[in-house]
């Protein structure tokens, strides 16, 4: 490791190589020529940091890279790229590995081919979109579903009761007179509307959301 | 790959989307001045980006090593690249469909249309000159004297210098011949002629003996130089067998500039108060130069340009007052002249001009001239003048901003009544009451009718979510306090106020230097807002200025009594503040003069021998006495010193944990952080000091820190964040390689609900050594990019969570990292338990990823930013950000979401609609309910 630090100062003795690669087309980015001209690549290790730009033919090249173990990063405005580990050894070979940030340096990932082929991981999206009013989304929310269900129960259940067997109905009414009131028949819509888990609160929800934004 | 994506997205999910940029707010709240700096005259030109292009663009290489393409129509930047690290020289040349630029050791060719790199080559030595021959082939002259031909990034041939002692000067290309011009130590001019095809040296001759040389210029056909401090001008026609022609220069000439195009040569003479030109033609056959005409002298500090258009050579002369004249190459007749309606400052000088001339029918011309100007304090502002009218201008002088100060605008509500309230305060109770009654009645009469009349308009505006119409501007702030002035100082001594809330508009400009004293200017040490609307400026040269920050007027100017080393501002109660300046020899001065220091002050200054000294300043005599010193290890040197921001409110003294216990923050306004580096052992050490007593509270050493890469730190509240490039070894094995971002947080005690050794003390004094020892928690993260500068958001009360702002120079952007993400209490190697989850702590993951939604400059590219400063708005949720040093960028962020203001997405129409719909529903349901209740009563009992 100490030797590595000295290496950049002894460029005469140490072999220096060009590290080359291309931005390969991929399903995510079929035409790499659309990458902005400011797309840059950096090759870093202790003591040195080389930087280059994407070329018109979608290739890149770092010239005179001394022997050592480097981290290759891509900075781009429109796509994100994965970091790579690039080893330049004494025999004039360049070995490329996938790497993971935060792992120990000896912990190599999948070996990659050389010349390096770079493909994006995902497009960059800088923005969040303000959520506007969306009726279908509103209807899909659980609060509204519960409210709608209870409304249906209020209006439909009494009608169902009317169509029931008169004997059973009489029995039910007797039971009602004797014991506690039927919660459904005794339902107070006014207080329900003022309640928390009511349709009113549900339909006011989008405004609450807006406030948060 | 799949594994990788999973790791990647897992980390991304941890990043909470705070202070993100909303799509509809991007480009509304933020602004950006894309600056490039002062153009290098010989590397600035109009050029058609491609052969079939209709219009040409302006290409320029600047002293900031930025190569840029500017649209001459509106002055916008088409593309730009930062080519070097603040190197001040460079060459750019036009080629077919490309621009080739050489900075330092690199030569790069860029596509002229899109700015994409075509090829690049790095040489063994610095590039002295560059010429382009057909087909984008470059000929390069290196500092070691070699001449190299480069085609498509490959070296075709290399021709070493004939004599290694020769000093290479410039390069000329004439047909198939390349001329390398060298100055010999034995006072000769060597011309090496090289065949462009083969690189063979066909001749190397010492063509002229020269006296001490001042400046040398070469075009394709001729080499011109001056001798004996501008007393003699000599010409030598290249490629002709003749000797040098010498002409005496006029008397009192202070500068001679040369311009050439084809066979026309222009000599531009400058004296103290006049400038003129002489035009010469080159005769290749005879190898001679003959005078064509000379122009009558006019105002000094003007600029000429020589342009070829349609086979004709034109000369334009632009004067500092905006007038310009067009001449042909044959005679001194004015073909066209333009007067300027703008009244320019007398002190403006024109550094360079380039023109594009299109002859029209009946002797009319369309002329576009791109000029770079200089005035005291402002260097390199550029303008485009079309037929005498200024079409646009670019404030390129602001690229060199070195210091800034925030200026609070006045509150219209409190400012107007301040005087009245003061009157009431001095009256008896009854008198004050009567006065107030009268005041309110008076206000009702004056403002009432307008206010009532304005109600419908205001309601409609609010209802339709229109932008709140600014009722006041200028020095009056807006309702939310988004508008503030940032007063900035350029390196050259100019002061500019930028309205940060209004897209960085320039409010006023002012120069602290006069035109005859520009050489003595040493720069602004620091600026402070000393009182409402007044900025105090301390200069290194030892002057103190007070400037009206709203009007841009100098109020006072006084000498401090020595060169200033450092300064600070002290709040001494009341409205005014006192600036304390440390002069050379550790003497202390108070500003404004006559201020008094209420009590002894303790300051920290850098000693001469690389040490740091703590000084006690006596409150009466202002004598200083050293109280402590901090001497780094012999191999170490102090890299930087960081202290807490001047305005850094802390809302809570503790941090409430999930189990309702409290970790008390170690709060001390005298904390400073010292970063020392040791390049021989490549290590960096961080010290946190108590600056009154000089006690080291905490230190951390990072072996394997790269001292050649930036190390930056910032402090706020009770925590410190710093970044460095590390290759630390763990148990003899190389650890993670990359940029580390370390957070250290100071607590009073290791245990919750404990206030450490000083818990029972009512008061304590650092002077008696009673400062307690903090318990420091740290976490280190791997950050994917280099950080060149750090900042922290500030809000009015400090309730809103803070965000760390990091400038990432490689991706030209600023990221806002929530402090919560960097929390050193994130559990390591285990999932957070119930209490920790309640606190919002995630499991520690060593690698941070850059979430694009946290990039506050979104699609804008920021170049050269050195400092990020923040200030609170009137809204607690919002922090205003201003970044300078190269480009200027301003925006505002809401680290805990805009909790105290309705967003733009909030629709009042919808709210009212919902209420109306509910009203209708209630009206519809109410009779049903009533009927049901009645039925229930009557039917149930029946």
Please sum up the structure shown.
Chain A has helices spanning 2-6, 135-140, 142-162, 166-178, 189-194, 199-212, and strands at 16-23, 40-45, 48-53, 59-66, 68-75, 79-81, 84-88, 94-98, 111-112, 116-118, 120-123, 127-128. With 213 residues, chain A is α+β, with helices and mostly antiparallel strands. Chain A is rod-shaped and about 100 Å long.
Main attributes of the structure:
heterodimer; A: 213 residues; alpha+beta; Immunoglobulin-like; 2 domains; three-stranded mixed β-sheet; 6 helices; 12 strands; rod-shaped; disordered C terminus; B: 942 residues; mainly beta; five-stranded antiparallel β-sheet; four-stranded antiparallel β-sheet; 5 helices; 46% strand; globular; disordered N terminus
Could you explain the architecture of this structure?
The complex is a heterodimer of chains A (213) and B (942). With 213 residues, chain A is α+β, with helices and mostly antiparallel strands. Chain A has 2 domains: 2-123, Immunoglobulins (Immunoglobulin-like, Sandwich); 135-212, no CATH class. In chain A, 31% of the residues lie in helices and 28% in strands. Chain A is built from 6 helices and 12 strands. In chain A, strands 3-2-5-7-8-9 form a 6-stranded antiparallel beta sheet, with no helix packed on it. In chain A, strands 4-1-10 form a 3-stranded mixed beta sheet, with no helix packed on it. In chain A, strands 6-11 form a two-stranded antiparallel sheet. Chain A is rod-shaped and about 100 Å long. Chain B has 942 residues and is mainly beta. Among the domains of chain B are: 410-463, no CATH class; 564-631, no CATH class; 907-942. Helices cover 11% and strands 46% of the residues of chain B. Chain B contains 5 helices and 65 strands. In chain B, strands 23, 24, 25, 26 and 27 form a 5-stranded antiparallel beta sheet that branches. Chain B has a 4-stranded antiparallel beta sheet with strand order 2-65-64-63, with no helix packed on it. A 4-stranded antiparallel beta sheet of chain B has the order 3-4-5-6, with no helix packed on it. The radius of gyration of chain B is 34 Å and the shape is globular. Chain B starts with a helix and ends with a helix. Residues 1-17 of chain B have low confidence and may be disordered. The chains are: A alpha+beta (213), B mainly beta (942). Chains A and B meet through strand 2, strand 3, strand 4, strand 5 and strand 12 of A and helix 1, strand 1, strand 10, strand 57 and strand 58 of B. Strand 12 of chain A pairs parallel with strand 1 (21-22) of chain B.
